Amino acid sequence: MKEVIKMFMYIILIVIGFILLIKGADFLVDGASGIAKRFNIPEIVIGLTIVSIGTSMPELVVSVTSALEGHSDIAIGNVVGSNLANLLLILGVCSVIKPLEFKKETKVFEIPFMIFSTIMLFFLCINGSGTEINSVTRIEGIILLAFCILFILYNFIMARKGAYFDKDNTLVEIKFNQNEDISVFKSLCGIIIGIIGLKIGGDLVVDNSVQIARLLEISEKLISLTIVAFSTSLPELITSIAATRKGDTDMAIGNIIGSQIFNILLIIGLSATMMPINYSTGYNSNILLLIVSSIILGLFPFVGKKNQMSRGNGVVFVFTYFLYLGALVLFSE
Asked: What's the predicted TM-score (pTM) here?
């Protein structure tokens, strides 16, 4: 009877977490869009930086805490599982709602950089010798953080240039609109409120999902790749869907790609810098799936309908994600 009551309380707290995530996502998208329009910054740049870091906060908290407490499986599994959910499920669902258009920078730099970051993580995890074999060391963590800083600088340089390419690869100068009556303070408050809502909501969903998993005696590896990973991806899911429904597809794409990059470079980098992370080779197949899926995403703008991720592509991605979940459950130890 006590376990049933506990389960019920966990479910109630998860529902509250979902509500905070939904409202937080709305505030974050509206605030970020307001700043983008007020300062003529491309929405994809906002998505790749402010929104991506904000929606990656649950992953950051979970992975850093897990690393410090010695739960390396959760630290790695959370990021790998979240990135798979972001790429296959969330981006897939968004493209089903509305086909996603890719800008030139996304095709030629951001997606390739995401693929590079994922491959780099894999080799950092499996390299080394002696006591450092199959681990991400502090030095390697610093390397990841250095690339993270370079990525952030790239986005701000692109914003300061005030120029971007449209889907036809034509250079578009972004001119300041003096008639754009948008309150910067209100937009910033929206971003702050949104991030706080996402953080609290994410914590409620993650913590109570883990408690339910423990009651059901699910393994730590399976928890990290499924429940924890999906729960920490909820901000990206809700934010990207909200942005897509509002027509801000650039922000939806930027949010997912930016989150993929920050999850690896910032979260694993910071976690490993604070405490070296031991890596289980049991995650090899998961990271390889992530690499292959990222490469396929990079091919979408060049095959089929040019510069677009179609609804059909989205259906394939979503179907692949559910096949992946089924395989995890069937072949879990």
From this structure: 0.78
- H/E element holding 233? none
Q: Cα(24)–Cα(18) distance, rounded to whole angstroms?
A: 10
Query: Quick check: 232 and 259 in contact, CB under 8 A?
Result: no
Residue-wise over 257-283: b if at least 16 C-beta within 10 A, else e?
bbbbbbbbbbbbbbbbbebbbbbeeeb
Share of the chain above pLDDT 70, in %: 86
Q: Could you tell me the CATH superfamily of domain 42-177+219-331?
A: NCX, central ion-binding region (1.20.1420.30)
Structural domain boundaries in the chain: 42-177+219-331
Helix (H) or strand (E) run with residue 178 in it: none
Check if the beta carbon of residue 88 is closer than 8 Å to that of residue 99. Answer: no
Kindly give the residue spans of alpha helices, DSSP state H, lying in 216-310. 220-222, 229-232, 234-245, 249-262, 269-274, 284-299
Dist. CA 44–CA 291, nearest whole Å: 23
CA nearest neighbour of 226 among 319, 321, 87, 120: 321
CB contact at 8 A, 228 and 206:
yes
Report d(CA 153, CA 159) in Å as an integer. 10
Which run of H or E residues covers position 190?
Answer: helix 184-215
List pLDDT tens digits, range 115-157. Answer: 999 999 999 988 865 555 678 999 999 999 999 999 888 877 7
**Contact assessment for residue 57 and residue 195, using Cβ atoms and an 8 Å cutoff:** yes
Question: How many Å apart are CA 118 and CA 8, to the nearest integer?
Answer: 38
Packed helices 249-262 and 2-38: angle between N→C axes, nearest 10 degrees: 120
Sequence length of the chain is 333
